[in-house]
Design goal:
The protein has four helices and 19 strands. With about 250 residues, it is of the alpha+beta class. The chain folds into two domains: about 120 residues, 2,3-Dihydroxybiphenyl 1,2-Dioxygenase, domain 1 (Roll), CATH 3.10.180; about 120 residues, 2,3-Dihydroxybiphenyl 1,2-Dioxygenase, domain 1, CATH 3.10.180. β11 and β12 form a beta hairpin.
Length: about 250
């Protein structure tokens, strides 16, 4: 059983401080002390007054970076066996966590449960009072892999699968409140699965403008979402979903 789900933002080491400041600002969080052998990890910490648990971590990496998922479980060895039986690949098996890839290439980790307790953080209030919330990891899945990848994540998580507004989208919602849910997007091309972050917003144009003032760039505008790049040119989306939805 998945006890907690983390969105893990992997960002280039040379732009990491700038990215950490950006994501801290737009999520209304504080940066934890750096940790790891090379001080490469940190957590975005909600205001203690909110009595909410963190759900976002960051890692400084070589290369372009991206997004991966950490899943807290009670028994890592058992979770790994289940994932392998479903078609995952084991990348590294450490003493206290395991690194895997889904059948079409999305990186994720099994990590120990019990470290995150409480309820997910509430939406962030921007200076103009617009609400937004980092509450979704979107898995971008190639057309040929969509059926297998969707079945993998649905079975692995045990979450509820719901059809989205458009036929290329479906959503996995946890049965209990967790910091993030998963959106499964079927792409119009064949390529390895990757992931990006989605934020829900009460006003996508206002949220996009706020993010631009903090160093983001708008890439594409759609009726219900806006595609943006953060300061390291990593893609994310601001969507018109209810930020109080999870």
């Amino acid at each position: 059983m998945i006890r907690w789900a983390w969105a893990f933002l992997d960002r280039p080491a040379q732009r990491f401080d700038e990215c950490a400041a950006f994501w801290s600002a737009i999520t209304g969080t504080e940066l934890s002390p750096r940790r790891g052998e090379k001080d490469e990890f940190l957590t975005l910490l909600p205001d203690p007054a909110l009595f909410a648990a963190a759900g976002v971590k960051m890692q400084a990496v070589t290369g372009l970076g991206g997004v991966h998922i950490d899943l807290d479980v009670d028994d890592i060895a058992t979770a790994v066996r289940i994932a392998l039986d479903l078609g995952a690949e084991l990348v590294a098996n450490h003493s206290d966590y395991a690194v895997l890839r889904s059948p079409s290439g999305q990186a994720f980790c099994f990590t120990p449960s019990g470290r995150a307790k409480g309820r997910p953080a509430p939406p962030t209030c921007a200076p103009d009072s617009t609400l937004s919330c980092l509450d979704q990891v979107c898995l971008d899945i190639g057309a040929a892999d969509h059926a297998v990848e969707s079945e993998f994540w649905t079975t692995l998580t045990g979450w509820d699968l719901e059809q989205g507004r458009l036929p290329e989208f479906s959503r996995l919602r946890p049965k209990e409140p967790l910091p993030v849910q998963f959106l499964l997007q079927r792409l119009g091309e064949d390529r390895a699965t990757s992931a990006h972050i989605d934020l829900s917003s009460s006003d996508i144009d206002a949220t996009a403008a706020w993010h631009e003032s903090l160093g983001a760039t708008t890439i594409e505008r759609h009726e219900h979402w806006i595609v943006m790049n953060d300061p390291a040119d990593a893609t994310y989306c601001v969507t018109s979903r209810d930020p109080n939805g999870i």
